[in-house]
Each structure stands twice: as C-alpha cells, then as structure tokens.
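Hi R.,

As promised on Friday, here is the backbone we talked about, encoded as structure tokens. Could you run it through your design pipeline when you get a chance and send me back a sequence?
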C-alpha cells in the first residue's frame, strides 16, 4: 500500500512557480474612446514561458480614465493615465506575481475647427 501511494505521488507533477511576468505593451498612449489589447506572459526562474498560467487583470485608481476587462482589453475613458496590473498565478498553486502597465489617455482629434 505504501508503494502504491509513493508511485501516485511521483506521478503528480509539481507546479512550476511563476518567477516573473511581463505586460505588452508596458506603456502606450491612446485617444479617449479607443481600446488597446494588453497581453501578459509568465516565466519560470530559467526564463522559460509558462503555458498553464492564470492571468487576472486589474486597474488601479479612478474609474474615469478607463477600464480593463478580464481578457486584458483596455478601454480609454477620460484624459489621464490608466494603471493596469496583471496578476499571474500557476494553476497548480504557488505565489502569484504581478506586472504593471501605464496607458496614457490623450484627447481625441478636434471635432471642428
């Protein structure tokens, strides 16, 4: 019985911890009303990309500058700066890591001259 338990434990893969996260683009400028697709990648301590990672998106600060949804789509609201955080965690557990991006929201083009 102990041998069977030992064999089962050997077959369970240990989760690779997330060592770092990057967001692309980390900085951008968009006009009011425009959208921007952000992407995040998680890496292990050897610099290899981790494919089985959960990414959650958050925005910091006020709601007027814009929003970011659960897929990383940022929508510009008002002139200012939208600060976005990506939180990456291994699906097998372990400590999550964060990365940050800043999207500068600029005025749209003039409607009339």
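Update: got your reply. Pasting your designed sequence below so it's all in one thread:
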């Amino acid at each position: 019985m102990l041998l069977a338990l030992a064999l089962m434990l050997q077959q369970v893969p240990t989760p690779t911890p997330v060592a770092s996260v990057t967001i692309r683009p980390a900085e951008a400028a968009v006009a009011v009303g425009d959208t921007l697709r952000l992407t995040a990648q998680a890496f292990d301590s050897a610099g290899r990309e981790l494919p089985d990672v959960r990414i959650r998106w958050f925005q910091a600060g006020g709601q007027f500058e814009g929003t970011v949804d659960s897929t990383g789509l940022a929508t510009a609201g008002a002139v200012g700066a939208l600060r976005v955080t990506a939180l990456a965690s291994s699906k097998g557990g372990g400590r999550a890591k964060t990365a940050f991006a800043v999207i500068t929201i600029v005025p749209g083009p003039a409607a009339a001259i």
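One thing I noticed while checking it: The mean pLDDT is 89.

Thanks again,
M.
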